[in-house]
Design brief:
Elements (H helix, E strand, L loop, with lengths): L9 E5 L7 E16 L3 H5 L11 E5 L5 H12 L4 E6 L3 H9 L5 E4 L4 H5 L3 E4 L6 E10 L6 H13 L1
Parallel strand pairs: 3-4
Antiparallel strand pairs: 1-7, 2-5, 2-6, 2-7
Length: 161
């Protein structure tokens, strides 16, 4: 879609990629974290949780093809942990609201819930047996002159990150 000028900016997660037709505007690493409501029982007594503590937990996840979700689910399955998927949705704001309500847990890139950490409405469940960092890259087409909106978007990202 970037090559066909359908989209202006491409944001990727996963293994680093390169394309001679693209200009890399930004690159950063993002930790993927298990998140919970601030009063979740796993946060009350544990410094670090393990997969066994997540047994039979309910999750709200991003879409099935999401790279960090796939890594996390594979790790749960390898550990033999049963879990429930309450909802699959591509909207991070909705995911955070459901987690804040205490109905479920989720996993998200750390940068996507910084405001909620500052507001003390979400918390990270530190895991002793799971760690995942994903490469994020943001591209635009090398032949496309960045618009003021694209530049403002990239500036906001740099400020947030």
């Amino acid at each position: 879609m970037l090559n066909q000028n359908i989209i202006d900016i491409l944001w990727t997660y996963g293994d680093p990629i390169s394309n001679q037709n693209w200009t890399k505007a930004l690159e950063f690493q993002s930790e993927i974290q298990v998140i919970a409501a601030k009063n979740h029982p796993l946060l009350q007594h544990q410094k670090k949780a393990s997969f066994s503590h997540l047994e039979n937990s309910t999750f709200i996840f991003t879409e099935v093809n999401c790279s960090y979700r796939r890594h996390f689910e594979r790790a749960l399955q390898s550990a033999g942990i049963s879990y429930h998927v309450f909802l699959e949705i591509g909207n991070t704001e909705i995911i955070k609201k459901f987690v804040e309500s205490g109905l479920c847990l989720s996993i998200l890139p750390e940068f996507s819930f910084q405001k909620e950490l500052e507001l003390d409405s979400l918390a990270v469940i530190s895991m002793s047996d799971f760690s995942l960092s994903m490469d994020s890259q943001i591209f635009f087409h090398k032949d496309k002159l960045p618009t003021s909106a694209m530049l403002a978007f990239l500036d906001q990202l740099k400020t947030l990150l």
